[in-house]
Write a structure and sequence with these properties.
Layout: E1 4-7, E2 13-18, E3 24-31, H1 45-52, E4 56-57, E5 60-61, H2 62-70, E6 75-80, E7 85-92, H3 96-108, H4 114-132, H5 135-147, H6 161-166, H7 169-179, E8 185-191, H8 195-206, E9 225-229, E10 235-243, H9 252-263, H10 269-277, E11 283-290, E12 295-304, H11 308-325, H12 328-345, H13 349-363, H14 369-377, H15 381-392, E13 397-401
Parallel strand pairs: 2-8, 9-13
Antiparallel strand pairs: 1-2, 3-7, 3-8, 4-5, 6-7, 10-12, 10-13, 11-12
Helix pairs in contact: 1-7, 3-8, 9-12, 9-15, 10-11, 11-15
């Protein structure tokens, strides 16, 4: 892999990965800060800032920002998670300077007009309403809240109606000033990139940012618990979670393969036994996500309300049996799926950018793909089973929407 890491004098990291045959480029500013950094009364502030920077930045209003990127056939977007905010552009190689200019304006010169803020509050409140009307989205938010009870990490990224209504311009500007510091920012450019020119542009756009140490967030601790939305509906959506390894834990490759075998595709145990054999649900899958200081393994399903208790009980049984009797063929298939997914994602400029950003953020370096593949190939059957057993040794969190009373007791 051709990626190289540079750093400006103020601490901002730059990752450049030129892809010789690419015509397009991905340019993203990855900030290692998200909703878990917010004060208790300011839930949703990171997400609100992400929205508001597009209402006007630098010399452009919202319409001019949209026209500037679309005049060259490009795309400009952003997203917020619990531990990351990303401002991203996709353009042809010749338009990388414009992409960098727009991204720099978004984070360094947002206007934060009060009238725009009041209008955007309405937009985000509508988004919040959509989440509450979408059972699987709501079950996902409730799962994090149950798993990390009374902690910033467990709060919904979007915030609450009260916190959204309470934001003012000072809150937004303070977030930019205090949280989006150079040490937390990483500029990642992949595809049709001129490395020397990109570094010059980065120095021009970001080199004069003052270097200040941001305050770290509170550590996340998996507590477990239950959060049940008892609304009446024909369908039920439930999820349960178990504590998983940190993203950097040597046990994560084994946990990833165990998760894939249990619920990562149509050939997985969960899909075959709950959907194909028993017809208990329309959708069922397992996933695992590692963060810097915690991890989460989860199983989620959509089922008829009357089948919710039976499907939950069977899913837990399937996971427990897999931890004891996972077969070599299942492990081989899971490994092939994970490897193929990784390699396919690295063929795209966006996939490479996201891979590099996560690698540097968590490990402080570009982890070569051969190293990642080597770790996956080193997982044997006993290690994969042990990963499942370790998951089951921890507490459990449960969320459901429309499922009535569900038990997680062993």
């Amino acid at each position: 892999m051709s990626a190289r890491v540079h750093r400006l004098g103020n601490g901002l990291s730059i990752v450049v990965d030129r892809m010789a045959d690419a015509q397009s480029a991905s340019v993203g500013l990855y900030a290692g800060v998200g909703s878990r950094f917010e004060a208790d009364s300011k839930g949703g502030l990171a997400h609100m800032v992400e929205h508001m920077v597009f209402k006007g930045a630098g010399s452009r209003d919202a319409r001019a920002l949209a026209e500037a990127i679309e005049d060259v056939g490009g795309q400009l977007n952003a997203w917020t998670s619990r531990d990351q905010t990303v401002f991203h552009a996709r353009t042809l190689g010749a338009d990388v300077p414009l992409a960098l200019e727009l991204i720099a304006d978004l984070v360094r010169a947002p206007r934060f007009d009060e009238d725009d803020l009041e209008r955007e509050k309405g937009v985000i409140l509508s988004e919040l309403g959509e989440i509450h009307d979408t059972p699987d989205d709501l079950a996902g938010d409730l799962l994090f809240e149950a798993a990390f009870l009374d902690q910033p990490f467990g709060r919904p990224v979007i915030g609450t109606e009260a916190s959204i209504q309470g934001f003012d311009r000072t809150d937004l500007q303070s977030w930019i000033d205090r949280q989006l510091t150079p040490e937390r920012l990483m500029l990642v450019a992949t595809g049709a990139i001129d490395e020397d020119h990109l570094l010059q542009l980065a120095e021009q756009r970001f080199g004069d940012m003052p270097s200040t140490a941001g305050e770290p967030p509170a550590s996340a601790r998996f507590t477990g618990g239950e959060l049940i939305d008892r609304r009446r509906s024909e369908q039920a959506h439930w999820s349960f979670a178990l504590p998983a390894p940190l993203a950097t834990d040597p046990a994560m490759p084994a946990c990833t393969l165990f998760t894939q075998a249990v619920g990562g595709g149509m050939s997985s145990r969960l899909f075959q036994q709950l959907r194909e054999d028993r017809g208990l649900c329309y959708s069922v899958y397992a996933w695992v996500q590692g963060f810097a200081d915690c991890g989460l393994f989860a199983v989620s399903a959509a089922t008829d309300r009357s089948d919710a208790p039976a499907s939950l009980a069977l899913a837990r049984e399937v996971v427990a049996r897999a931890a004891e009797e996972l077969g070599q063929g299942e492990l081989n298939r899971a490994r092939a799926q994970v490897e193929a997914s990784l390699l396919m994602s690295l063929e795209t400029v966006q996939g490479r950018a996201d891979h590099h950003a996560r690698s540097v953020e968590l490990f402080g370096r570009i982890v070569p793909v051969d190293e990642v593949l080597g770790e996956l190939r080193a997982v044997d059957l006993n290690t994969a089973r042990q990963a499942g057993q370790q998951l089951l040794a921890g507490p459990i969190a449960l969320s459901s929407v429309g499922g009535g009373a569900l038990a997680v007791a062993a």
